[in-house]
Amino acid sequence: MVEFFKALSEESRLRILSLLLEREMCVCEIEASLKMTQSNASRHLTALKNCGILDSFKKAQWTYYRINNCFKRDNAELWEYLQYHLRELPTYKIDLAEYQKCSGQKLCDTISPQQKH
């Protein structure tokens, strides 16, 4: 449980989670939506994945992230709290609008695999 709260104590990680409430996302979409560098996004995604909050999978050469179903099930009260309060982050509407702009650009089709995971 300590690891969950350590991972959740960083604003960038909360912003990532708030976007992932909506749907699974490719790492390139997360980077573009939150205006993060690849290394910064990877560091935050790794922390969230290592404590079990996120799950990842590959589609071709791309890595996609989603909120782990086991985390949701095993931590139902925390998950309920997060679903409500992540949408109250001051950055949520801006981040969501950026994501919506990015999602129409099909970033994973335009960025070479050598540039992203």
Automatic annotation (TrEMBL):
HTH arsR-type domain sequence ranges: 1-90
Transmembrane segments: none
InterPro entries per record: ArsR-like_HTH, HTH_ArsR_DNA-bd_dom, HTH_MetalResp_TranReg, WH-like_DNA-bd_sf, WH_DNA-bd_sf
Name of one Pfam family that matches: HTH_5
Annotated GO MF terms: DNA binding; DNA-binding transcription factor activity
Keywords: DNA-binding, Transcription, Transcription regulation
Matches recorded under PANTHER family: TRANSCRIPTIONAL REGULATOR, ARSR FAMILY, TRANSCRIPTIONAL REPRESSOR SDPR
The protein's name: Helix-turn-helix transcriptional regulator
